[in-house]
Amino acid sequence: MAEATNIPVGSTTAGQIAVAAESTVATRMSAPPSFDVADFPVPHGREEEWRFTPLERLRGLHDGTAVATGDGVKVDITAPEGVVIETVGRDDARLGRAGTPVDRIAAQAYSAFEKAGVITVPKETVLTEPIRIAVHGEGGTAYAHQVVELEAFAEAVVVLDHTGDAVLAANVDYVLGDGAKLTVVSVQDWDDKAVHVAQHNALIGRDATFKSFVVTFGGDLVRLHPRVAYAGSGGEAELFGLYFTDAGQHQEHRLLVDHNTPHCKSNVAYKGALQGEGAHAVWIGDVLIEAKAEGTDTYEMNRNLVLTDGARVDSVPNLEIETGEIVGAGHASATGRFDDEQLFYLMARGIPADEARRLVVRGFFAELVQQIGVDDIEERLLVKIDEELEATV
C-alpha cells in the first residue's frame, strides 16, 4: 500500500491544495499547545492523536497517576572543552523556548520535573567531538527536561542515548542560532519493559541547519514527537529515523514540521522493520506550510519492511498547504513484505539464507545509517540489526 502527493512549483489550483489539506487530520490536536496540564483532557483513545497508542501501557503517564521516584533515570553528560553544562531551576527563561507541549504527557513532563539540564555551545564554536548525553533507566519513573542551545555559527553533534529500564516522560529542546549547524542522534535502546514518551522541539534560526536521527530498538512502548519550527529564513531541517519493532513492542513516531517562515527547507525519511506477533509501529508525518511561508521546499517519506506475520504498521503522511507560492512539496508512504526475490537471488549465488536475509535488511537501512557520521553509533546499530535478525533466522 502506498500513498504519495507531489505539488510542484506553480501548482496553485484550489483542487490540488484541497486534496493535500484533506489528509491533515493528525495535525489537529484535541487541545491547543499549553504548558498547563489542566488544559489537556485525559485521553480516552478516541482522540486523533491517541487512537493508535495503547493507553493501558503508558503506566499512568497520560492520566497523572505516574509519580516520579528517586530511582528513575541517571543522566551523565560528557562534552568537549568550551561547552557550558548547567543544571537549572524551573524559572530559567531558556526552558520552553523551542516549543510548547502539544499533548497531556508533554505538559505533565514540563510541570513535573524539578531540575533541567541546559547545554550551550558558544558563538562560532566548532566542536570536533560529539556531546554525549547518556540517560540510563534505573527502574523507576522520571520526568525530565533538556535544552541544547547552539549560539550563532556554532557547530556540534549531540548523541542522546537511552538505555536501561524506566518510565520516562521528557521534553528536549534544540535551539539553533543564526548560521548554526546541529546534528542530533537520539537512540532508544531500552530494556524490554521500559516506557518512554517524549516531545523533541527544534527551533531553527536564520540560515541554520538541523539534522536529526531518531533510532528506536528497545522498550515496551516508545512514543516520540519530534517537532520543527523556523525562527528565520534560509533554515534547513533533515529528519531521519530508523526503527526495528519486535514482538509485542509498540513504537510510535509522530512528526510535525511547521513551515512558518519563508524560504526554508525540510526533508523527512523514516524507515522501519517489524517482526513477531503483536509488533506495532506507528508513523505520523505532518508538514504544515503556512500562508506566510512562501518559497518552501519540503518532502517526507516513510518505508516499512514487514519480516513476519503478526506485525502491524500504521503510516500516515500528511501535508497541509496554505500558499501556492512554494518550490515543492510532497509525501510518500509504503509498507511491504520481505522481498523473496532478493533473497532467492542471493541464495542462488551461494549465500546462506540467514546471511542473505541479513544483507537485504542491512541494505534497506544502510542509506540512513551511513549518514549518521558517528562511527561508534553506526557500528553499534549494524550490530543491533544483526542481533534483531537472529530472532527470525
Q: Can you describe this structure?
A:
Helix 3 packs across helix 4 (353-369). The protein is of the alpha/beta class. Mean pLDDT is 88; it is low at 1-26. The radius of gyration is 20 Å and the shape is globular. It has a 17-stranded mixed β-sheet that branches. The protein has helices at residues 14-22, 104-112, 340-347, 353-369, 375-390, and strands at 2-7, 73-78, 84-88, 116-121, 131-150, 155-176, 181-188, 195-204, 209-216, 221-230, 236-245, 250-259, 265-274, 280-289, 297-306, 312-321, 328-337.
Using only CA atoms, what is the Rg? 20 Å
Low-pLDDT ranges: 1-26
| Class derived from helix and strand content | alpha/beta
Number of strands: 17
Helix fraction bin: 10-25%
Largest sheet data: 17 strands, mixed
Q: Number of helical runs?
A: 5
Question: What is the topology?
Answer:
Elements: E1 2-7, H1 14-22, E2 73-78, E3 84-88, H2 104-112, E4 116-121, E5 131-150, E6 155-176, E7 181-188, E8 195-204, E9 209-216, E10 221-230, E11 236-245, E12 250-259, E13 265-274, E14 280-289, E15 297-306, E16 312-321, E17 328-337, H3 340-347, H4 353-369, H5 375-390
Parallel strand pairs: 4-5, 5-6, 6-7, 6-8, 7-9, 8-10, 9-11, 10-12, 11-13, 12-14, 13-15, 14-16, 15-17
Antiparallel strand pairs: 1-17, 2-5, 3-4
Helix pairs in contact: 3-4, 4-5
